[in-house]
Design a protein that fits this description.
A: alpha/beta; ten-stranded mixed beta sheet; 21% helix; globular; B: four-stranded antiparallel beta sheet
């Protein structure tokens, strides 16, 4: 089947999904977001900076709304282009990767992305290419409506790279962001994916992500939501082959009346594969957060660590860790806890000479600091900045 | 003038009065050992002195450098130069030892590497504070925070309990350093086994039992405790 026919099938499946609500999260009416908005797309660099995107990066993809696209790569062995350009230039290859891991008919959000989405990045890291500095992506919404980019990342055999995506929106702009991401990590390759979200109080966000990791590959994901959002729901799925590894960390800050439902699912399909899911939820004001985590295993080992921190009497956090062993060869564990900052810990730090505010900041920083192993120094610095910002916004 | 004076103090924790009629004092160049059996109220006294919330002075007065600090919050007492080394510090999720020591050293102008080296905790700097530490490691890290605080008067709670001999020796050296760098060269050390006395010589020893100070005397009191035990002695 050629690309054209494949896309006919994608469209048909998407139409079937148009009225399907998502399995999780708040159901919203997508129709108001499909109307074309008037306005000139403008990049707000201060907002982009807040989510950590370096617009001067050597490899970067920038998209504003569904109207402006810019990309370049000055890193040898790294290809960056708009998804439409990939489809046009390499149709035979594209049909093997686009809409192959995410079902366009899964729900109304994947459906609108398939039918109305524009842009998104295609990134390929060529065989055995090892890249220390992050490949940046900036997805910005300036006039609102729908932004539904389709991202495909291929990290070929033995290659290693970090993709850093910052997604944000102009204040008070009403928007629906549905980012479709399909990542392919080939044999013994490593993909580190950092995604930082900072939305506004009227935005709705529904990313749909799936990752396939071949034998000996590693996929490390670090996701942060550090600002207000009306509703946010995402549930990335990772499939692991033999000896593959994944570490999935989600740091979710809920403020004001945000409704957030985030999680990760991993399928350990090969032998000796290992998965770790770590989530840290901080609930302020009257936020409602659901933190999901699921590991389904035929073999290998999996661990879930879910913690919630309540910073308000009106907030709600619910954690749902799920483990499913399909054979006796799977070893799965989880730990979960929800509570407030311990008075004893605050007082301990005050007894060491910190003010109460400083003590709380230290404990919050500790809460959001998860140990992501094997990160290049540059990426670690980005994450440290994001951690500090998360603490500031939690206080 | 006494640097610290505890005058007829009673302390309650919750509804329960744990200490009553406690009077002790610490002068310049004085290392006071506070001995007593488990549950005597030694830790309660140290926590009340530093103003730890929940440890309420219901009568009597505490003076530090001649100033009445009885109703002063812990934050202010610590700023004035009191510091406590806790018997069992809490685990701090995600907080690295290095991070805490760096924050203290930024304020008090000290060298994290030097302190960590002194206490043999270089290997713990990037670990989560308290997570998976042995008894000795926990104590050494706690004393490291005390060293980084550079207090005028250190209140040290059970530095010798639950630790191996090697750790006690390292801890004792560090405590000596804390005392050396303090302007008054004084400290209060709480111990129920008095093992630390093999490495640090007290100038004064008080015995606390059943919530009150029974006797204070010179360092020879330790020998008597070892010989007769607390109950026989008082």
């Amino acid at each position: 089947m050629g690309l054209e026919n494949w896309f006919k099938e994608v469209e048909a499946r998407a139409r079937e999904g148009l009225n399907k609500p998502s399995l999780y999260g708040v159901d919203i009416d997508v129709k108001p977001f499909l109307e074309v908005r008037e306005g000139r797309p403008i990049l707000d660099e201060s907002r982009v900076k807040e989510v950590g995107v370096d617009l001067g990066a050597k490899a970067i993809y920038t998209q504003i709304d569904q109207a402006y696209f810019k990309y370049l790569s000055r890193i040898p062995g790294v290809e960056v282009m708009r998804i439409e350009d990939f489809l046009e230039s390499k149709p035979d290859e594209a049909k093997e990767y686009v809409w192959k891991l995410v079902d366009p008919g899964k729900d109304k959000y994947t459906a609108v992305a398939a039918l109305k989405g524009r842009g998104g990045y295609f990134i390929r890291v060529k065989k055995n290419t090892k890249v220390e500095e992050p490949i940046m992506a900036c997805l910005f919404m300036s006039i609102g409506g729908l932004q539904a980019p389709h991202n495909v990342v291929i990290v070929e055999k033995g290659a290693e790279a970090t993709v850093y995506t910052g997604c944000t929106i102009a204040p008070e702009v009403i928007g629906l962001h549905v980012g479709i991401s399909e990542f392919y990590v080939e044999e013994n390759a490593v993909l580190r994916f950092v995604m930082v979200h900072s939305w506004n109080r009227v935005s709705h966000v529904r990313p749909r992500t799936a990752v396939f990791v071949k034998s000996g590959g590693k996929y490390i994901s670090y996701y942060v939501n550090l600002s207000r959002v009306k509703t946010l729901q995402t549930y990335p799925v990772v499939y692991l082959n033999d000896n593959a590894y994944t570490y999935l960390a989600s740091i979710v800050l809920g403020v004001e009346d945000s409704d957030i439902d985030v999680g990760n699912a991993v399928y350990l399909e090969g032998e000796n594969s290992v998965a770790e899911i770590v989530s840290r939820s901080i609930s302020r004001d009257s936020t409602r957060i659901v933190a999901r985590a699921s590991i389904v295993a035929k073999n290998g080992r999996g661990h879930i660590d879910c913690r919630g921190l309540m910073l308000s009497d009106r907030a709600v956090i619910k954690t749902i860790p799920e483990l499913q062993a399909l054979t006796p060869n799977a070893i799965l564990t989880h730990e979960a806890s929800i509570g407030r900052l311990a008075e004893d810990e605050i007082n301990y730090l005050i007894s060491k000479g910190f003010t109460k505010e400083e003590a709380i900041a230290i404990l919050l920083r500790g809460f959001v600091s998860v140990e992501v192993k094997g990160l290049p120094q540059k990426v670690r610095e980005y994450i440290e900045t994001i951690e500090k910002l998360t603490v500031e916004k939690s206080m | 003038m006494e640097m610290l004076k505890v005058d007829n103090v009673a302390v309650s924790v919750g509804e329960k009065v744990v200490l009553k009629n406690v009077s002790i004092s610490v002068d310049r160049n004085e290392v006071l050992f506070l001995l007593g059996p488990n549950g005597a109220g030694k830790s309660t006294l140290l926590r009340a002195l530093v103003g730890f919330p929940g440890y309420n002075v219901v009568s009597g007065k505490i003076y530090f450098e001649g100033e009445d600090i009885t109703g002063v919050p812990m934050e202010t007492r610590v700023a004035k130069g009191l510091a406590i080394a806790h018997q069992i510090p809490p685990k701090l999720l995600g907080v690295r030892v290095r991070q805490l020591l760096e924050a203290l050293c930024r304020r008090n102008k000290c060298d994290v590497h030097e302190i960590a080296n002194d206490l043999g905790i270089l290997h713990l700097l990037d670990r989560e504070f308290g997570k998976g530490f042995s008894g000795g490691e926990l104590k050494r890290v706690e004393i490291a925070t005390l060293l980084a605080q550079k207090p005028k008067l250190a209140l040290i709670d059970e530095p010798d309990s639950g630790v191996d001999v090697d750790s006690i020796e390292i801890i004792a050296k560090a405590i000596k350093k804390v005392i050396e760098v303090s302007p008054y060269r004084s400290a209060i050390i709480v111990t129920h086994s008095a093992l630390i006395s093999r490495y640090i010589e007290p100038t004064k020893v008080c015995i606390l039992m059943s919530g009150t100070v029974k006797i204070c005397n010179g360092k020879e009191l330790i020998e008597e405790v070892f010989r007769y035990g607390f109950r026989e002695l008082v």
